[in-house]
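Re: How this chain folds, sequence and tokenised backbone to follow
How to read it: Take the token row as a discrete description of the fold.
Start of record: The labelled sequence and token lines come straight after this line.
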Amino acid sequence: VRVNIVVQGDGILADFSRSDPQARGCINATYGVTASATYNAILHIVDNEIPHNAGCYRPIRIIAPPGSCVNVLHPGPSVAGNTETHPRIVDAVLGALAQAIPDRVAAAEGGTSCNFLFGGVHPESSQYYVCYHFEAGGWGAASWRDGNNAVVVPNGNCRNTPVEIFETRFPYLTKSYALVPDSGGAGEFRGGLGIRRVLEVTAPQITLSALFERMKVKPWGLFGGGEGANSALLIRRKGMPDFRPFSDVFGTVSAAKFVNVTLEQGDEVLLQSPGGGGFGRPQDRAVERLLRDLKEGFVSPEAAWTRYGMDLSSMDHDLQM
């Protein structure tokens, strides 16, 4: 996805002409998704009192060539255009605007919904069940604040599911559910943290599909800010010593995208969402903010030194705590 942003009088042009041709896979966006993502990004930086109606959309012009990844043509697949490509378009538009208005935009957020789908027959009720789960990730930092921790992508409008509800409805045992230390990009303002969740299968069988992004390309930072951490999706079959990619264990073509894998009782799945990018140079982060990060466990002592240059050994013990 590539975009040029041009301000033209009292209007603005988002030109996606340099974006790649539509893909064979399902990540293509329809024109409607691309337009929605562009509006989403631009409305993030204007007065939030402006009503969202036809009048505020009219000054925004969009060029998205048919047959591109931002304007897919039939029969090109597009199921992930909304969950994956929409947030990446938002990031692209904000990244372009950062060159003109750096004080009003944020670094890249997680940029993936971490689509986790499963179903089967519940062993207690003998009823069919199915779940389409999103995992919340870190959002990008801005010039005045840290990124939000564990929030669904900007177009998601979804909440996380409490562990108690998840375990009541579906045959999983939650072994752990926590923010991931050091997953937010370092910076004067730190990127938001992603989540790590480990689930153990308690049913005889569960059928699982997944569609993740951000396993290779990290969410970028702005103006010296560091990258957020990658996402992860791993499996530990019953009796295995450690977690491994699904592609290694089940032979799927992709470690991030696959359908209809069968898990069995005692198998464990690790889901990790990405962190958000940082904003500004890490060495400019206020000491008070970094100490609070250490107290909360958002940043490890090792990262405080390697990323921020803070030597805890030379500090008063009370300050360290």
The chain has a mean pLDDT of 95. Residues 106-285 form one domain. The chain has two domains: 1-103, 106-285. Residues 39 and 57 are 7 Å apart (CA to CA).
